[in-house]
Give the backbone structure.
Amino acid sequence: MTSIKARYGRDGYSVVSIGHAGTTEACTAVSAIIQALAGWVHNHEGGISLDKGEALIAFPRSEGADAVMDMTVIGLLQIEKAAPGAVKVEVIYDS
């Protein structure tokens, strides 16, 4: 199972993904979204750590960052809905 924590923080955002999804389709889908987010962060500002089965991406609030995070979370939640035994997404909102 892939466990994902997506955090909406006061000063920025983070996405942590650990593990491999139980199906090729779910794993590929999660990887595509994580890689797209990493590409956006690479072209803007933030930190990226990618390894087999693990990803940590953090980036500050900035122009466009809200939409990027929302699209990332929506995509990951859709994968969780399609493959509930393979992907678990926790969305955290810091107040």
Summary: The longest helix spans residues 24-43.
